[in-house]
Amino acid sequence: MGAYILRRLLLMIPTMVGIMGISFLVIQFAPGGPVEQVIAQLTGQGDSADQRLSGGGDALGSQMGAEDLNSRYRGAQGLDPDLIAKLEKQFGFDKPPLTRFLEMMGNYIRFDFGESFFRNTSVIDLIVDKMPVSISLGIWIMIISYAISVPLGIKKAVQDGSTFDVWTSAIIVIGYAVPSFLFGILLIVLFAGGSFFDWFPLRGLTSDNFASLSWWEKIIDYFWHLTLPLIALSLSAFATTTLLTKNSFIEEIKKQYVVTAKAKGLNQRQVLYGHVFRNAMLIVIAGFPGAFISAFFTGSLLIENIFSLDGLGRLGYLSVVNRDYPVVFGTLYIFSLMGLVVSLVSDLIYTWIDPRIDFERRDV
Question: Is the pTM of this model over 0.90?
């Protein structure tokens, strides 16, 4: 197993380089980079230039250099070439792309993600600041999903082929097929003051007077704000776990030890929860780390924007829109690395739960 872990760890290096390299290459051809963003503000084509340069305005006077501005930057006509040169230096575009990429990866290996282009704070501080919102969504989605999916999957396995099984499968598949962001918009229209009822807040994770509330009022307020986002995310969260649980139980129910247990006079409940449950749940439990990461990051982008939740998904979206490359690449690096590590942890949990699984000896 040690050799397998070492091999997986070594494979993470080219994988991360590939992920970051492809993303970096795509960014080079994407129009409207940070220099263009600032030019748009300076020439009155965007919002406030002061907002874009907050935290970086002092460095503006000590940076930049340009050649043939009109051919390289749209809207640069009439601007001082020295100003553009300083902008390029401030954002690191005065160096060749390969040099920039190698320097970026060298810093990321040391977990130095630099500072945001347009915010007066470091990338790590931004991620830490936004993480509680995404953690709240991820944790509660996992709890709700497993609390419903596991009992439902067991019942479907026991009643395999029945009317209940067919209808619940149809509902689960339909729910899985409906995009969570569309369902979220529907919930807003229906219950958040859109066109019908105004029962739930439209934005944020807490109310403005949250600090003045008592502890039990804070709990109620917190879940009041979380209700609609969690419902929107939960719609498609049941399918995988439910069907995985069902198939795992069906496979175990057909095994000889179940027949033997029934022959000894045990009733269905004793057989199901005394023998089948711990064996059938192995694969579900082993997949928990990967499922948590999936719930933690997948789907949060649109939901956080729809409900104005200031989490990692919204941070990533705004960073892409504003071409805040340190935040874009920093979050991409951290999330990709977490995904690879969690994938390895999931494999190790499989081998810990079921010693018969041996990744080191399997044919590659």
Answer: no
